[in-house]
Write a structure and sequence with these properties.
The chain is an all-alpha fold. The chain has five helices and two strands. Strands 1-2 form a two-stranded antiparallel ribbon.
Length: 142
């Protein structure tokens, strides 16, 4: 393997590492926001009653929530193992999807709490960073 190929491989691996790390950061933020939300008295009451902020906590909702949370988890792995083109497309798609999901969450149930807004801003920014980073990724410059 020549020096140029070695440098390109190292650069591509660094980009994969950065994307994977951003997905880890994002996943932790999603989890911590949910943990803090579960400390609110209204949410605790809603968990017992099966309805939080006007949203019924039924099997369908919980499945949809689980799927939406699985996206950043699987992106931790996919960002490391996919080749350039699939990696770029998957990161852009997942980043846009999760941004839309997070923005859309503001229009569900009651008005968001301060901690939810704080975490949402971080989550939206991180998703946009992932999208822009993946958009900038050029295979020839790996």
């Amino acid at each position: 393997m020549n020096m140029k190929t070695t440098e390109q491989t190292a650069s591509a691996n660094r980009k994969k590492d950065i994307l994977s790390t951003l997905w880890i950061f994002l996943s932790v933020n999603y989890i911590l926001c949910d943990v803090l939300s579960n400390m609110e008295s209204a949410v605790l009451k809603g968990l017992i009653e099966g309805n939080i902020a006007g949203i019924e906590m039924n099997q369908g909702f919980l499945l949809a929530a689980g799927i939406s949370l699985e996206i950043p988890f699987i992106m931790i792995v996919l960002s490391k193992v996919l080749g350039f083109k699939a990696n770029k497309i998957t990161n852009i798609t997942a980043g846009i999807l999760m941004t839309l999901y997070q923005v859309g969450s503001f229009f569900m149930g009651t008005a968001p709490t301060l901690h939810y807004i704080f975490f949402s801003v971080i989550e939206i920014l991180c998703n946009l960073i992932i999208v822009f980073y993946a958009l900038k990724w050029n295979e020839s410059k790996n």
